[in-house]
Structure formats: C-alpha cells, structure tokens
Specification:
elongated, Chalcone isomerase, 5-stranded antiparallel sheet, binds heme C, alpha+beta
C-alpha cells in the first residue's frame, strides 16, 4: 500500500514536471536575434524621401533569415524556430549618392506556434536603434505588424532570389 502510494506520488511529480517543461511560454517575448549579421542576407530595399513611408521606415532595410527559415524557403513552409530580421538603417543622401547612416531599428519575426497562436504562430518584436534590450512595441503595435503580414502566404513577404 505504502509502495503504491510512493509510485503514484512519483507519477504526479513526473507529470507536473513534464507539463512545466512543455507549457507554452506565452509571456516570454521574442529574444534579440544575436549574430543575425552572419545569417543569410535575403534582400535589401531602399525607402527614399519620395515615399509616403519615408518618415517611419525611410532608409535601407536589409532582411536576414536564420537556418530554419532557409529550410522553409526550400520546403515551402517555415518550421518552428524560423527567424527573420528587418534591419533598418538611415539612408543619407548627398549629391545623388545614398550611404548608410545609423541603425533606426531591428524588427524581428520568430515562428513559435505554441507561444504566439493568436498572431499566426509568429511573434513580432521591435528593438530601438542598436539596443538589444529597448523593446518598443505595444500590443496595438504588434497587432499592426500582424494585420499587414497576414496578407502573405505564411506571413512572409520576402522571396528568395539567386
Ligand atoms: C503596412 C504593412 C507592414 C507592416 C505594418 C509591417 N510590415 Fe513587416 N514587412 C512588410 C513588407 C512589405 C516587407 C517586405 C519588405 C521588402 O520586400 O523589402 C516586410 C518585411 C518584414 C520582415 C522580413 C520578413 C518578411 O516578411 O519579408 C520582418 C521581420 C518584418 N517585416 C517585421 C515587422 C514587424 C516586427 C512589424 C511591426 C512593428 C512589421 N513588420 C510591420 C510590411 C509590413
């Protein structure tokens, strides 16, 4: 009797431990994408002074993808752990030549369906300038990211070129 009680107790401990480990960590934000400059560069865009988006997103944006996201381009579906970075740098124009200035922000999308079920399985984050800790997105801001990205197949705009 005493032995079966011990067994039951152990089973309870194991089940609650497993539940703790596999519990979706919904309250954990998207981490800073350390080392993204060494990931695969997908493309670069330039939003110039003539664009309506210049004030908010003007300058060069370089888009990077981690290895998981690269697997997604190959298979047609981005796996869990895929991360994309939108690295926004000021564009400084002098005599028709546009050079890079300071970093404006780093936008991140990370696929984790358990953590971010309400935004298509992708978490959205924005880091100010070159800071790895200064997060600037409110809940409304996050909904804004999602509602625009939702137009795309699996939420990603950038296509891979040769
Ligand atoms: C009005 C539409 C719109 C909104 C709002 C928007 N994005 Fe995007 N995003 C785009 C477009 C378009 C691209 C592709 C840019 C290009 O092709 O040069 C893009 C690209 C990206 C990428 C690279 C992966 C991809 O889809 O190509 C990331 C990461 C990203 N955005 C994050 C964010 C985050 C974080 C927010 C919210 C702060 C956000 N975006 C808000 C339109 C939007």
């Amino acid at each position: 009797m005493k032995r079966s009680l011990t067994v039951i107790l152990w089973i309870a401990v194991i089940i609650s431990g497993a539940a703790f480990i596999i519990r979706p960590k919904a309250d954990e934000p998207v981490p800073y994408p350390d080392g993204f400059r060494k990931w695969t560069h997908i493309k670069t865009g330039l939003i110039g002074p003539g664009s309506a988006g210049f004030k908010s997103t003007g300058g060069f944006h370089h888009i990077y993808a981690n290895d998981k996201a690269m697997q997604g381009y190959a298979s047609g579906y981005f796996p869990q752990g895929s991360i994309f970075v939108f690295d926004l740098i000021e564009g400084i124009e002098v005599d028709g030549n546009t050079a890079e200035g300071k970093r404006r922000q780093v936008d991140v999308m990370m696929k984790d369906s358990l953590r971010f079920p309400s935004t298509g399985g992708w978490g959205y984050e924005e880091f100010k300038g070159s800071s790895k800790t200064d997060r600037v997105l409110s809940e409304t801001g996050r909904t804004g990211c999602f509602s625009c990205h939702t137009k795309q197949a699996d939420y990603i705009f950038s296509e891979l070129r040769d």
